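Pair request: fold both.
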Amino acid sequence: MTQKRTIYYVSESTGITAETLGHSLISQFEQTIEFKTVYMPFINSVEKAKKLTNQFDLVAKADGARPIVFATMVEYEIRVILKRSNCLYIELFDTFIAPLSRELGVNPSGKTGLSHGMANGDSYEDRMDIINFAMVNDDGARLDKYDQADVILIGVSRSGKTPTCLYLAMHFGIKAANYPLTPDDFEVNRIPDHLLRNKEKLVALTIDPPRLNRIREERRPGSDYASLKRCASEVRQALQMFKKHNIWVLDTTTHSIEEVSSRIVKAIHSR
């Protein structure tokens, strides 16, 4: 039987650092263990920490094994509460901060939220504006804003455009918009002009038709939209369009959002 364990990503701030590092570590064990992940950002008080430890007890009882906690916790008192609870507590800052402090000869500031701009008003506001841009420009909602984008993702519906745009915004500060190819686009068999005017920003996402079929079935089971025949037809037509206009294509079938995003960032920097 496959072993099942619960993973917590805990932080006094957004939890992005804990998630990124923690996920990199547990990915080495995903072949043999099924992980359930729980995100707990903004654990920034003793009361919240104690409440969370109660949750650890319940999870340990239900799973038959204590949860594994990846944390980036600056506040010492909160860290102690979590460390003494019913979990395997892995404080990611401990691994890096102490050696850095010794090497630099300077004590760490102990301030929270620095890694993602929470303590810097201008930087934080800029990041929020970029994330908002991705949300406002999702699914072709604002075609007039494409000239402001750093990258525009294009592809069939449910090929991974929206989560990739949000990941690019949150982790890399990239203004990302996306456009889903519609039945109207497939009927005329051409990419809309407002996209081609920003051709240098276009990145196409594709996906294996059976995989697309499974994803769409979860959204609209039994519909023509989800049928394997339609999925195959849309993917085939989309790839023909991308090839015609020499648009770079990334396959999301077996690649994670992190992998796809990293390749896009590398391409943007090269450009």
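--- second member of the pair ---
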Amino acid sequence: MLTVLFIIILIFSVIVHEVSHGYMADLLGDPTARLQGRLTLNPLKHIDPVGSIIVPIITSFAGFTFGWAKPVVYNPYNLKDRRKGEFLIAAAGPLSNLSLAIIFGLLIRYLVSGAGVVTPFAEFASYIVIINIVLAVFNLVPVPPLDGSKLFLAFLPDQYGQIRMIMERYGPILVLIVILFVWQVISPIVPYLFQLITGISMG
């Protein structure tokens, strides 16, 4: 039951992540996501059969839940300021997850401190906070296709375009390296942020 709950929260959180990319692109002049009907929280518009269903189920048996929604596409040539636009669009995803973590984290802080006990809702909200902190931190890692790479590449001068091509070519391998080796180094920031936001320990 807990695994199912985690998967549902994960799917909702990655959908919010992708919709945020689309809304930011639309605000900056690119209507691609809106025209494709992606500016909605309707799961049917965003679910990727592999990333939203199969991978979360398989990884849940390994002790963690990982997955993704169908990426929102945007046309950089519709942006007035391409560099700034790409940066803001990339940043919108992790910021949406961080915002969800803060909103539900503050609810936990209020409910726990007010009632003196961890209520069922506070426990449910804690899962939302944890998953969204993980999504925000993980997506800020600067390797393609994660948002962190787009934030990094947005400031890279045009003459270093070959670096972009190399990073994108080996993106899947780099993500696998991050999951297997790098994540265990940066993951301690998750309980730190959880306690900072909620006021209680993750343990």
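Observation on the second member. Residues 2-198 form one domain.
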